[in-house]
Amino acid sequence: MVSRFSDVLATWLVVERTRWALWLPGCLGIGVGGYFGMSSEPPVYAGILATAAVALMGWRLRLRDGSVLVIAIALATVAAGFTIAQLRTITVDALVLAKRIGPTMIEGHVLRVQHLEIGYRLVLDRLAIPR
Asked: Does the pLDDT of residue 14 top 70, yes or no?
């Protein structure tokens, strides 16, 4: 079964060899989507460690088989997409509430009121939240 899959994969990779570079943006996108699809934030080192591990695996197997190298490059690109998304999220560093605060009073000056299909958006300035 594994041998048959390996033969089919090797044949497909040979047929697609002129389009390998076109698969790289898709692999990056899979990595980015994988990061944003997670239900919780992974450790900071996760993306870098995964990218380094797959790149090292590809480097070690580079002389063994061309199809293995192509797969390693694709996996490294997926891991790089994950890492890029994670690093971008870290660098944006927006304020996040530490816990749910529930309904609360907010005081401020209304700068603008926008009518939306599902309600209103208020743009406020000089906010004050008690406690």
From this structure: yes
Q: Kindly state the tokens that stand for 7.
A: 């033969």
Q: What is the rounded distance in angstroms from the CA atom of residue 51 to the CA atom of residue 54? A: 5
Cβ pair 122, 131 in contact under 8 A: no
Residue ranges covered by each domain of the chain: 2-92
Spatial neighbors of 48 by CB under 8 A, at least 6 apart, are 83
Burial of 4 (0-12, 13-18, 19+ CB in 10 A): exposed
How buried is residue 79: exposed, middle or buried, by Cβ count under 10 Å (0-12/13-18/19+)?
buried
**Single pTM value for the model:** 0.63
Residue 100, number of CB atoms within 10 A of its CB? 5
Helix H or strand E segment including 112:
strand 107-116
